[in-house]
Fold this protein.
Amino acid sequence: MPGKRLIVAIDGPAGAGKSSLARRVADRLGFFYINTGAMYRAVALWAVRLSVALDDMHRLEQLAREAQLELTKEGQVLLNGEDVTEAIRDPQVSDAASKVSAIPAVRRALLAVQRSMAQQNSVVMEGRDIGSVVFPEAQVKIFLDAHPAERARRRARELQEAGEQSDFAAVAGELRERDERDRMRPEAPLVQAPDAELIDTTGLSLEDVEEIVLRIVRSRTSNGKAAAMEH
Ligand code: DC
């Protein structure tokens, strides 16, 4: 891309619709899509497989530093060369990712990787702390939220579509617990950056939200380059 690279940061709690939205927006703008949750999930999966205790900070830091993480253009997640795209969606891994991501040294290791991923390219990056910590200088910051019941419904539907058991009450409970942990941790908690635009996606279609975000991108990129790059 000629000229300055652009960073679109999308943060919010689980089930707010970040991943589907970020992928579509990246597609429209011709930017790289980077799912940082998938990176924490991959490290957590590795820890679970090796039976590393989720409070063993030193060992977890080591795994985060040694993990070879790749996010492909097609949306696959590779851990040490293995395709773990499906494996990291397991509810046990969701819970482990939330715990592993509370460890400052793990966050430091992945922060470096995340920053380097956006060095050469314009990106749409989604997670919990992208607008607040990873790229406080991002030109576009979105904070995506939705009513907790709506988020639990979406997550339960995703699990069902993936052929997994999904008990609504259990899914809602897991989301609540994970959000609470992600919001309350001292290091890079889930928070709306002061200059982020809040979008409540409750009752909105993915297409609606996509258009709102593209409008924000256009308005925040004064030279209109981002708009001109839309596919
Ligand atoms: O977005 P997700 O649900 O796949 O993320 C899994 C966990 O990873 C989430 O519970 C919190 C953590 N996470 C984080 O701490 N910081 C990020 N930038 C992204 C995810």
Observations:
- The chain has two domains: 1-31+121-221, 36-120.
- Residues 14, 36-37, 40-41, 97-98, 101, 127-130, 178, 182 surround 2'-deoxycytidine-5'-monophosphate (CB under 6 Å).
- The chain has a mean pLDDT of 92.
